[in-house]
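User: Structure tokens for this complex, please. No commentary.
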Amino acid sequence: MTDRLPLFVVTGFLGSGKTTLVQRFLRDPAGRGTGVVVNEFGETGLDHHLMVHAAENVELIGNGCMCCARRDDVGRALYDLVRMSRQDGQSRFARAIIETSGLADPSPIVGTIARDPWLKQHVELAGVIAVVDAVTGLRNLRDFDEARRQVAIADALVVTKTDLRAAHEARDIVAAATAIASDLRVHDAQAPEFSLSRLFDRQALPTARGGSPFSATEVSPHGEGMGSFTFTLPDRIDWPAFTLWLSALLHRHGDRILRVKGLVRTSAGSNPVVIHGVQHSMHPPVHLTGADNGQPSFLVFITRGLQRAPIEESLSRVLDLAAAPEEPKTLQPV
Amino acid sequence: MCEVCAIFGAGEHWSDFGRLREERFPFDDIQHYRDERKRRIRLINRILTPFAVSCEDYDGEALMLLDRSGRSRIAPTLNDVWPAAEALSGRLIDPLDVSFAGGGRHD
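Assistant:
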């Protein structure tokens, strides 16, 4: 597998502090060699000292970061970014960041990468970072589906402005966010131990640390609203059958499956495998090594408008069919 | 390569990943790998029969899907199976539909 350009999607409401966060990172030594895609030129508020205005769209900025300002197509922007990052046969950039505009649903970006064969080969979704500010974030999460969706799809959460007097308690915001996505890695941007390099770190896969399982609150979706549910899996799952089922499910319903995560014990290996996907895009599975604490296999889904029962029944049918003896009766075409 | 990693050869599908980037685990048992592959193809056929599409091994790595009139599509990885099958059958394949994989239970 050739090295793909790691891409971080930074999402958050207007005023959440996400632009400031990206600027901070670009100025930090850890941010060296970052390509930035901005959705709309001039709207992101990136410090103009960092940007040299474009005749055409691509310019080198300050400490070697690159800005590619595009007015339209995210896929096109990413393509240009990769192409430019690979000049002279080498990778000039260690990573790319795309900052979504304030109210945007980050999922189309994920979908764009997952569906385009070229992009999938050259870009790796390294992480989705949701930025929430401590003053308005709690209310936004309560009142706006867009805010919840941004968090649902995120791997990491950065809470900003915790130092302000009007800030809510960080733990209340963290509680509200982890109720949506239980294993978010949470960062407080004002904390002394806050590390930008750790935030923009591609090995950001969720793991069941020290035996504590994902525990998603069960939320049934109302209509097309968001819901999350967990179900336990049979002790040893048939890996070929399971992956077949999951690939069919994501193909047909990936737009409504915001995240799927799980710990799966397979018929193949002895140790469990952690799987993690965002819509149509699955991360490579991670083998858990070390002592197996005997935790049961399970899957967590965060969906938009999809209920738990049809998903569970669908998996059951596939596992039954896979286990059925060699020659079933002839199936008539439906 | 363990079975988890190597179900469909070196394709880019996520279920084929799992090997570490710099290492390649040697095959312990190629026969086991082949058996798992055959089992998977058998399951795909069971699922696709109601759509009048069949599936064969192609080259030991990819799959070939065929409709009744012999039109075919290559699916290099697992992800490609579903769009190819939909194109051949002219129908959407929805695993949440109760008729998907409906042939397993014998009550």
